[in-house]
């Protein structure tokens, strides 16, 4: 291909960028086209996601916070004193702060792929919880990783808030829960936030907000491909669409091509029909029973679950 050498020179790819490139090339060659939701979260995407969590239509974040706050004493009752709290993924610290205030943890281990972000987060928490030992781990938490030696003798509690599990395909969710159980070990506990199946209108509006932030969040992945992989996506030629797929219990986000067009990237071209979609995210919604079955099938014993009064969101405690 004539473009490839020039591009290879123009972009000196690090390992992460070339994995991104491989995934994008692979995903756009599929029928239907798809991109992994993990690529939403560059600096702009993370900022847009923070804005989503504050939208009036996006109920999950504030509802989960209310459950963690209102059910703090029930949650702390299942947590052994002096346990190490291992958080899978490190976003805003609001939720973990609630747990740290309400339960007697001996150590906090945030695990995230972004090392810079982790360090800033760890520093802020050390300042506000001076007696807490914080041991950040820079790792992809969807793959096996080692816990810090310092927490070897402590009981472990995993924390996976935000219904991030919902962005995994069911088989990936099962694999993640299994691997978390292996990493945390015997007698571990897990506190996990899971979005619930509900009225389709509420779900629809949560992913089609009137301010258009979710649309920007979705389209940003094309911007990222342009910037990091030298793509030439015209963002105005795609529209955001989020629908609820009732049979598969999931919100699907798509980017729909407004016209027939060809997009180039890394010396390759990808053609789109008018109306053709790129499936960019699934956000699975569970009933309490379906989540408990998933947890059991992954080697955990469901211990207790809590909901807000309107039954919008759930927090589950699992025991290894
Ligand atoms: C991070 N994750 C749980 C969000 C969700 O609701 O699935 C991501 C998101 N996508 C669109 N809005 C929010």
Automatic annotation (TrEMBL):
Protein name: Dimethylhistidine N-methyltransferase
Listed PANTHER family: ERGOTHIONEINE BIOSYNTHESIS PROTEIN 1
Organism: Bradyrhizobium lablabi
Keywords: Methyltransferase, Transferase
Coiled-coil residue windows: none
Start and end residues of each Histidine-specific methyltransferase SAM-dependent domain: 20-318
UniProt cross-references to InterPro entries, sorted A to Z: EgtD, EgtD_Methyltrsf_superfamily, MeTrfase_dom, MeTrfase_EgtD-like, SAM-dependent_MTases_sf
Highest taxon, organism lineage: Bacteria
GO MF entry, a single one: methyltransferase activity
GO biological process terms on file: methylation
């Amino acid at each position: 291909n004539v473009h490839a050498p020039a591009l290879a020179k123009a972009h000196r790819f690090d390992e992460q960028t070339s994995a991104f490139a491989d995934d994008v090339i692979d995903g756009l060659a599929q029928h239907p086209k798809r991109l992994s939701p993990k690529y939403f979260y560059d600096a702009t995407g993370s900022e847009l996601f923070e804005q989503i969590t504050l939208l009036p239509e996006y109920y999950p974040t504030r509802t989960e916070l209310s459950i963690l706050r209102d059910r703090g004493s029930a949650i702390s009752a299942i947590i052994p004193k002096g346990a190490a709290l291992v958080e899978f993924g490190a976003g805003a610290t609001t939720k973990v702060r609630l747990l740290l205030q309400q339960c007697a943890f001996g150590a906090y281990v945030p695990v995230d792929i972004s090392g810079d972000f982790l360090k800033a987060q760890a520093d802020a928490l050390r300042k506000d919880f001076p007696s807490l030992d914080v041991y950040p781990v820079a790792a992809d938490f969807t793959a096996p990783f080692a816990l810090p030696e310092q927490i070897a003798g402590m009981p472990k509690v995993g924390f996976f808030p935000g219904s991030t599990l919902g962005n995994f395909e069911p088989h990936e969710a099962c694999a993640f829960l299994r691997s978390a159980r292996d990493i945390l070990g015997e007698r571990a506990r897990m506190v996990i936030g899971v979005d619930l199946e509900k009225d389709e209108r509420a779900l629809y509006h949560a992913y089609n907000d009137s301010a258009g932030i979710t649309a920007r969040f979705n389209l940003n992945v094309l911007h990222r491909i342009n910037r990091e992989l030298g793509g030439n996506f015209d963002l105005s030629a795609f529209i955001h669409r989020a629908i609820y797929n009732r049979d598969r219990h999931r919100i699907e986000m798509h980017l729909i091509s407004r016209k027939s067009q060809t997009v180039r990237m890394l010396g390759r071209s990808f053609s789109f029909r008018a109306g053709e979609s790129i499936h960019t995210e699934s956000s699975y919604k569970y009933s309490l029973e379906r989540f408990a079955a998933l947890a059991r099938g992954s080697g955990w014993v469901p211990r207790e679950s809590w909901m807000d009064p309107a039954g919008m969101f759930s927090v589950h405690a699992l025991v290894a």
